[in-house]
Design a protein that fits this description.
This protein is 3% helix and 42% strand. It is mainly β and 199 residues long. 24% of the residues are buried. The protein has one helix and eleven strands; from the N terminus they run ββββββββαβββ. A hairpin with a 2-residue loop joins strand 7 and strand 8. It is elongated, with a radius of gyration of 17 Å. Strands 2, 4, 5, 7, 8, 9, 10 and 11 form an eight-stranded antiparallel sheet that branches. The longest helix has 5 residues.
Length: 199
C-alpha cells in the first residue's frame, strides 16, 4: 500500500490570463513518517507532438514528512512562451503534477488546459503569431486524470511496477486526438484498487 495518499488537489485562480502563475492547493496524507523528501513537480506540455517542448515549471522538496494530513499551495510561473511552438499556443494541452519519493514517481495528476482568446474577434481571426497577453488559460479542474504507480517505499526500486489509472470522465480523452496522449498520460482501462473521492 502507498505510504502517501493524495486526498485533494484544488485548482486556484482558474480561469486566468495565460501569464498568471499556476496555483494548486494539494492535500495529502502520510500513513507513516517519511524520513526523506517528497519531490513535487508541475510540468507544462508545450506540444503533443514531442516531449522536447515539455517544461518543468517548478519543483519543490517537501520533507521529511511526519505521519498525518498535510496541505500546501504549489505555485509555479507560467511557461516560457518562447519554448512553445506557435502552432500549439492556442487550443488544448496538458499540465501535470507529479510526486516522487526516493527518485520513484508514485503519482501523476494530469489536467487538460484550454488556451483561448477571450476577444470574439481574435477567436474568429487569430493572429499568425500568438498574442499571449490576450490568451486565457482554463484548466479543466473537474476532470483530472490520476495515475498511481507502485514503488518501493523503503529503497530504490529497479523499475516501477504496474500503474493504476483512475479516469473520472471517460469522455475527457475525446478532447484531444490520440497522438496528444502518447507519452503524457497512460492509456485508459486499467482498473484501480481504490478511488480518490475528492478528485
Amino acid at each position: 500500500m502507498a505510504k502517501v495518499q493524495v486526498l485533494n488537489v484544488a485548482v486556484l485562480d482558474n480561469p486566468s490570463p495565460f501569464g498568471n502563475p499556476f496555483q494548486f492547493e494539494i492535500t495529502f496524507e502520510c500513513m507513516e513518517d517519511l524520513p526523506e523528501d517528497l519531490e513535487w513537480k508541475i510540468i507544462y506540455v508545450g506540444s503533443a507532438e514531442s516531449e522536447e517542448y515539455d517544461q518543468v515549471l517548478d519543483s519543490v522538496l517537501v520533507g521529511p514528512v511526519p505521519a498525518g494530513r498535510h496541505m500546501f499551495v504549489f505555485q509555479a510561473n507560467a511557461p516560457n512562451t518562447g519554448l512553445i511552438p506557435e502552432t500549439d499556443a492556442v487550443g488544448v494541452t496538458v499540465v501535470l503534477i507529479t510526486c516522487t519519493y526516493r527518485g520513484q514517481e508514485f503519482i501523476r495528476i494530469g489536467y487538460y488546459v484550454n488556451n483561448e482568446y477571450t476577444d470574439p474577434e481574435l477567436r474568429e481571426n487569430p493572429p499568425l503569431k500568438p498574442d499571449y497577453t490576450k490568451l486565457q488559460r482554463n484548466i479543466l479542474a473537474s476532470n483530472p486524470r490520476v495515475t498511481r504507480f507502485h514503488i518501493n517505499w523503503d529503497g530504490i526500486a529497479d523499475k516501477m511496477e504496474d500503474g493504476e489509472n483512475i479516469d473520472p470522465s471517460p469522455n475527457v480523452g475525446s478532447m484531444l486526438p490520440p497522438s496528444c496522449l502518447q507519452g503524457k498520460m497512460p492509456p485508459m482501462g486499467l482498473m484501480p484498487d481504490n478511488s480518490m473521492d475528492c478528485m
